[in-house]
Amino acid sequence: MLRRLYDWTMSLADHPRALWALAAVAFIEASVFPIPPDVLMIPMVLAAPRRAWLIALVATVASVIGGLAGYGIGHFFFEGVGRPILESLGKADSMDAFNTRFNDVGFWAVLVAGITPFPFKVITIMSGWTAMPLGTFFVTAIIARALRFFIVAGLLWVFGAPIRDFIERRLGLVFSLFMLLLVGGFYIVRYL
């Protein structure tokens, strides 16, 4: 089933309203959809390199707005459903401790999930669930998603089709290693 969803998403790249399709995919991927917008963005940039920056901008804006929807899902559904269940089980105190720990590193969690292949929707929903400050979430989501989509668009714009395999197979690993080094560097500077 996931393969059919992937193929369907890829087919949208040829559609006359591909930018709108990209916006829709980027929006819903940030809150519920399993296929990342890169699947649609890559063939769109390869087909029209002169529009690379517009395509990246559309993906960024739609993904951040979708992230706000994911934040809302976590915030409103947790309060209405999740918290009463946890309170009835005597787990409200442990959830408060988790919320504090998550929000202490919230900027980094959103940044890492927004850049790497980690499902962004998980972090958007958790950010709302833990009541991360909305401003922190919003600014970090903009930074993270812009980095991800503009780097992909830039690589495709400069290198064209030969870089496609690298992006699809290895760019997530490169982003993950970069974030690990970045976070590790900050940790070393701060604690050593």
Automatic annotation (TrEMBL):
One Gene Ontology term, aspect cellular component: plasma membrane
Record-linked InterPro entries: DedA_domain, VTT_dom
Residue ranges of every copy of the VTT domain listed in the record: 35-155
Species lineage: Bacteria, Pseudomonadati, Pseudomonadota, Alphaproteobacteria, Rhodobacterales
Protein's UniProt name: Membrane protein YqaA with SNARE-associated domain
Transmembrane region(s): 54-78, 105-131, 137-159, 171-189
Pfam families named in the record: VTT_dom
Keyword annotations of the record: Membrane, Transmembrane, Transmembrane helix
